[in-house]
Design goal:
This protein has about 160 residues and is of the alpha/beta class. Helix content is about 40%, strand content about 20%.
């Protein structure tokens, strides 16, 4: 699933600002940041590494993937949300990288951590890319959608 670009999606003004800040820190062009759920879902379905910032964005993008006819799961043609770029790369499902924290500050922190991790992962020939347990503990563990509950997918 690997590409060499990092994309960001945030829904409300705080989360979209966090996405811009994290993206800027790793040199992501503005064209790879969106507040449009359909654009974010299309990037995800195109196997792009998309970091989704905040709860509203995560709920909307997972709901859009349901509406687009994808099934929940970790197999080919299915979707989930990933705790880090390592899990995203090593699972055949589509899905966003989780930067949905328990509050806006955690989401900002997660967006930055995910951006740093993804940048390092891509630039180290797709090795590493994991967050620490403490970092993963900041992430929302599951999101209810119209087609079921999507759980955070992590690989050791």
């Amino acid at each position: 699933m690997a590409n060499t670009a990092i994309y960001f999606y945030g829904d409300d003004s705080l989360d979209l600002s966090a996405a811009f800040w994290a993206a800027n820190d790793v040199g992501t062009p503005v064209a790879q940041i969106t507040g449009d759920v359909v654009q974010a879902a299309n990037w995800i379905k195109s196997s792009e590494l998309v970091i989704v910032v905040g709860g509203p964005a995560m709920s909307k993008v997972l709901g859009q993937l349901c509406a687009d006819g994808l099934a929940i799961g970790t197999g080919s043609g299915q979707f989930t949300m990933f705790c880090d770029s390592y899990s995203w790369y090593n699972t055949s499902a589509y899905g966003p990288i989780n930067a949905d924290g328990t509050n806006a500050v955690n989401s900002l922190n997660l967006a930055w951590q995910q951006a740093q991790s993804a940048y390092s992962f891509i630039n180290n020939n797709f090795t590493g890319g994991t967050l620490t347990t403490a970092q993963k503990d900041q992430e929302t563990t599951s999101v209810s959608t119209s087609c079921g509950t999507v759980s955070n997918t992590c690989l050791a």
